[in-house]
Amino acid sequence: MTLIYEPAGRAREYAPLALNLYAGCTHGCTYCYAPAACRKHRDAFHASAAPRVDVIAKLERELERNGHGADRPPVLLCFTSDPYQPVAAQAGVTRAAIQTLHARGYPVHILTKAGTAAAADFDILGELAGDAFASSLTFISDRDSAKWEPHAAPPRDRRAAIVEAHARGITTWASLEPVIDPEQTLDIIALTHDVVDLFKVGTLNHHPHADTIDWPAFARQVVDLLESLGCAYYLKEDLRRSLD
Q1: Within-domain flag for 48
Q2: How far from 186 is each of 97, 140, 242, CA to CA, in Å?
Q3: Where are the alpha helices (DSSP H) in the chain?
Q4: Structure confidence at residue 201 as a pLDDT band (50, 70, 90)
Q5: Which has the higher per-residue pLDDT, 58 or 39?
Q6: I need a labelling partner for 195 at 20 to 30 A (CA). Which of 62, 135, 167, 205 fits?
Q7: pLDDT tens track for 162-196
Q8: Is residue 1 part of a domain?
Q9: Domain-located, residue 54
């Protein structure tokens, strides 16, 4: 099996290629799909995380086989873990992966809930055309975030990371998924639209709370707001169907 892979299903709407650097994720998000995707018990998946065995050496060998070239598609870090969860600062694996991918002409898209911890690599992110930084923005309320995402960075810190990336000239996007409180999602757009180059908006899936949300009403509201602010946006298929 290769390390770099083509995502399927809903993940495919986010990136043409992806790379998961770590096994496990200690953010502990209660809505996380990754334990099921990795066939791990939720408690065990969130209890600890570690770099995948020899991941950088294996990545280098894989990229050597692929050769070097222009117009490579971007590689997203990461879907089944966070590239800047606490273990990343100790291991240095995320930075090494960015440098390794850049050396072979692959732009990198970062997707994280770790906030300004990711700024440690902003000096190299953006070196290659097509690089981008993204944060999952779910709440304005620290209390709500702590309930649903107990060990992820608080909302203000995630927004601060996007502000810093934007100030450095790095392309930014925001993952507004899952949507748990539609009003807070609309507030996030209002707060961040001047520093986010693209909003990607989805739903909440495989969770009973999703049945409490009026998705058609939210879809109309979010489109109206994004268009009134002149924002670039992408509605994921699950939400787009609510407009039909």
Answers
A1: yes
A2: 34, 10, 17
A3: 34-37, 42-47, 55-66, 86-91, 93-103, 142-148, 155-167, 182-192, 215-228, 237-240
A4: very high
A5: 58
A6: 205
A7: 999 999 999 999 999 999 999 999 999 999 999 99
A8: no
A9: yes
Buried-state track 72-103, b at ≥16 Cβ within 10 A, e below 16: bebbbbbbbbbbbbebbeebebbbbbbebbbe
Domain contains 243: no
pLDDT of residue 69: 63
What does DSSP assign to residue 196? Answer: -
How many Å apart are CA 114 and CA 27, to the nearest integer? 8
What's the mean per-residue pLDDT of the chain?
A: 94
User: Is residue 68 scored above 70 in pLDDT?
Assistant: no
Q: Write out the two tokens for 67.
A: 């050769």
Spatial separation of the C-alpha atoms in residues 9 and 84, rounded to whole Å: 24
Q: What band does 70 get if pLDDT is binned at 50, 70 and 90?
A: low
Structure tokens at 100: 């390794």
For 71-134, the DSSP string reads: SPPPEEE-SSS-TTSHHHHHH-HHHHHHHHHHHTT--EEEEESSGGGGGGGTTTTTSSTT-EEE
Q: Which helix (H) or strand (E) holds 201?
A: strand 198-201
Q: CATH code at 21?
A: 3.20.20.70
